[in-house]
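sorry for the late reply, my laptop died twice this morning and i had to redo everyting from scratch. anyway the thing you sent over, i finally got around to it. pasting the sequence first so we're on the same page, its 499 residues, then the predicted structure underneath. double check i copied it right bc i was rushing
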Amino acid sequence: MTYTNPILNADWSDPDVLRVGDDFYLTASSFGRVPGLPLLHSRDLVNWTLIGHALPRLEPAGEFTKPRHDCGVWAPSLRHHDERFWIFWGDPDQGIFQINAPEIRGPWTRPHLLKSGKGLIDPCPLWDEETGEAYLVHAWAKSRSGVKNRLTGHRMDLDGRELLDEGKVIVDGDRIPGWFTLEGPKLYRHDGWFWILAPAGGVETGWQGAFRSRGFFGPYEEKVVLEQQDTDVNGPHQGGWVRTPSGQDWFLHFQQKGAYGRVVHLQPMRWGDDGWPVLGDDGAPVAVHEKPDLPPQPDAAPATDDDFPGGRFGRQWQWTANPQPGWATHHSGDGLRLTCVRSADAHDLRRLPNVLTQRLPGTPSAVEVELRLHSEEPGARAGLAVLGDAFSWIGLQRGADGSVHLVHRFAEGVAEQERDADHPRLSPTGRARLRIEIGAGARCRFFHDVGDGLRPSGPVFAATPWRWVGALLGLFALAPVGGGHAGAATFSHFRIDPL
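ok and here's the structure:
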């Protein structure tokens, strides 16, 4: 039996992986979306399901009342120590945080700021059984600190709440010929060596490096262990090493794919005669490979479809900032009832915290949802969006004369507000079926059905990412600034099907 890469064909950025017993767990960057720190589970390293999130809100809460799409949670590390799960991550504007829990599903502690500062990113802890000491390594974001291409190491107390020294640069990428943008370190102990698996060269064009030293603080020697070579997998790097119960080694990493974000690949891994790890096919990414030596599992992937039972939405959905009570209303039927939140930014979805999002699928797909606009407020609107540095949406809007129109709008990346992508048309019932067909290159075609059959709308829209985040699918309901409750909209039968 074989598997095909990518194993997670959507934006699960900066993955880290862990095995506890017969179970494998994965977390990833969630940036400014809420809840954060997704938690995925697998029994075979190929089929993954989303089982929850470790971070219910971004903190400090006041910093994330509005979208900060590329900020927040960067490159977490997932570990298991002292019968607890641990996640460390860097917020580039605040510092290094840590949470822990007795079980993967929680309860997770509140975030503890382990090291304060600008540009502190990509932390990874190690509790070393050989020395009985704990260590932490992290990278630097030049955008915040003016420093990059180096890794800093600390001793850490065993409860992960305090660093025991001022830190020392243990790998300086500027001293390695040809290396730049060294980041994303993962710290391990193997065969008497301290190992750091860390990428360099940038997310679209880089490679995976390995570093080893007899002492944590160095000196380290380096080697490139995974690079594109003659494959179509650009920049294969930044991920984690995991070992199966039988002793097989595997490496999970991402590939940057434009609007689709960072998709996840699984590479075989072995230790060469020289003691260095060998990833993929002698250092080149594999497209198809024999599955890990683990019990066969049914096909599985993180959920996408949702009928919103009782008005509740599934784990796959995240807000674009910390949510406020009342944005989504529970009720006795099915369907997602979103309040038409009043906003002075209704002309620009990128500025809105109350957009409920999930990842853009990495393969050609059709996205459909049914919408009913209940609001009687002139200017109230709701719809289905493709959201990135540029955005486009299709949905319903209440006119000043009380009628409801099907509208389709977009904004370029440099535009400060949206404009029409097609002429509005009347929706006699205040209902619509909305459809987006996502083709190759994340080129999106929009369709609508207001009772007279499915019809195309507007020109093709090419989805775009933000700087670090892939494009998102979004559901929203809005109203202009004013007084009183502005009503609601109901979404039902959300589906993503392959094309």
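Helices lie at 142-145.
thats about all i looked at so far, will dig more tmrw
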